[in-house]
Amino acid sequence: MNHLVILPLLVPLLAGTGLVLLRGSATATRRAVSLLATAVLVAVALALLREVGGGAIEVYRLGNWPAPFGIVLVADRLAAAMVVVTALLAACTVVYAAQGSDRAGRHFHVLFQFQLFGLNGAFLTGDLFNLFVFFEVLLIASYGLLLHGGGRARTRAGLHYVVLNLAGSTLFLFAVGALYGVLGTLNMADLAQRMAVLPPEHAGVARAAGLLLFVVFALKAALVPLHLWLAPAYASTSAPVAALFAIMTKVGAYAILRVYTLVFGAEAGPATNLIEPWLLPLALATVVLGAVGAMASTRLSQQVAYLVLASAGTLLTAFGLGSTAAVAAGLYYLAHTTFAAAALFLLADVIGRARGDLSDRLAPGPALPRVNLLGGVFLLLAVAVAGIPPLSGFFGKFLILRASVDHPAMPWVLGVVLVTGLLTIVSLARAGSRLFYKVDESVAAPATGPRGAALAPAVALLALGVLMVVFAGPLYDYSLATAEQLVAPLDY
């Protein structure tokens, strides 16, 4: 077995455990451990991507127990790519947090590392029950991170977030139990084989369990109508947490893509293409509500939260189209929107700190220090998020639209994506004009402006988006190969 497969789990797990033991140590020590662990995770993730990038699928049997009795981790192109995106996002986020916002609570870095452990486990697990386990790990860590620093708004949003996810976890267990009852296994590869030859008398239970799983994954992905938790939670929490949470909706999207191409895909017998009638319409509705929410936002962080919702809908629209080209386009768009949204959350915090008591409210305020630098970064990120050439958002949306040309829902997809793209441009232009051009001299500004180091993580995330344009050809080729591996899951 290749031990590289388990390292993305061991690195944050050992770091988190070590940080628990160091809870009485100086903040600088805890920061150093967290930063070092995240840097190691980036190196491990890139090494794993290189290992499976040629199409190999690595299976790691914990305890060397054979499936379906033992716990297995599976690394293919998709899982490795998700681990890399998570590691790069985490590296930029923890650097920002280490500049001071981690002091708002005692256990930030512990929770941060356990969050990474849960995320990487969800991407690498080959077992449906352990997908539930890793969901719970990342959710428990996210509860603490969401409330990091306290406050009435965070507590209220956190309560809603916890209650909804506890309900989702309960449904997940119901679905897992039902599938085990009729199929006798929870190993995903084994589930796919047994689903294809499922007796007709068990088809109703299997389909019901599959639809329950879709509800759970749709909740994690913030798909309409299970989206109401996202904007309050993301807009209320601290900037580094919101930036890390940019990957959270992608966990739900990943689970939908993995489970419904493997277990409920084209060869699933009575459950073939189970969610096909539901996914695309709900995804398009999510895009619309996200764009409308961004238009109506009164704070920049709230606006970015609604843009995350719109991007989740756009991503699931690509997956809902179902073709190899559409899935490849969605995978390219996934990395783009994760980096761009996280960068905007960090930038919103920098701008908010520079405006004093007015924070990031979209209202005239004091003249910003280093306004050209802040405005330039905001402009580039707005261009990326809105999908305007030449940044990665344009490539992602163009690929999705091109993949929809032969689909019966093509007019709906083109209409929704293009119109909501226009609404996104208008909402971001309005935000930029109020933040950078409309000055109210009666509002006092802080004595000191933002340090250049505070902008560095947002600029680094922006640079990752620029690299996605420079290397768009190889990245799309990888995405296309990943999509081909997904829609033909025999090797898995």
Topology:
Elements: H1 7-21, H2 27-52, E1 58-61, E2 72-75, H3 77-97, H4 108-124, H5 128-146, H6 152-183, H7 188-196, H8 203-221, H9 230-236, H10 239-244, H11 248-262, H12 276-296, H13 300-321, H14 324-354, H15 371-386, H16 392-403, H17 410-436, H18 452-470, H19 472-487
Antiparallel strand pairs: 1-2
Helix pairs in contact: 1-2, 1-4, 2-3, 2-4, 3-4, 3-14, 3-18, 4-5, 5-6, 6-8, 6-9, 8-11, 9-13, 11-13, 12-13, 12-17, 13-14, 13-17, 14-15, 14-16, 14-18, 14-19, 15-17, 15-18
Encode the helix/strand succession as letters.
HHEEHHHHHHHHHHHHHHHHH
Q: Can you summarize the main beta sheet?
A: 2 strands, antiparallel
Strand order of the largest sheet: 1-2
The number of strands is 2
Tell the overall outline: globular
Low-confidence stretches: none
Average pLDDT score: 89
**Helicity level:** over 70%
Question: What gap, in angstroms, lies between the N and C termini?
Answer: 16 Å
Structure description:
The chain is mainly alpha-helical and 492 residues long. It is 71% helix and 2% strand. Strands 1-2 form a two-stranded antiparallel ribbon. Helix 2 runs antiparallel to helix 3 (77-97), helix 14 crosses helix 19 (472-487) and helix 15 packs parallel to helix 18. The longest helix is centred in the middle third of the chain and has 32 residues, at 152-183. The two termini are 16 Å apart.
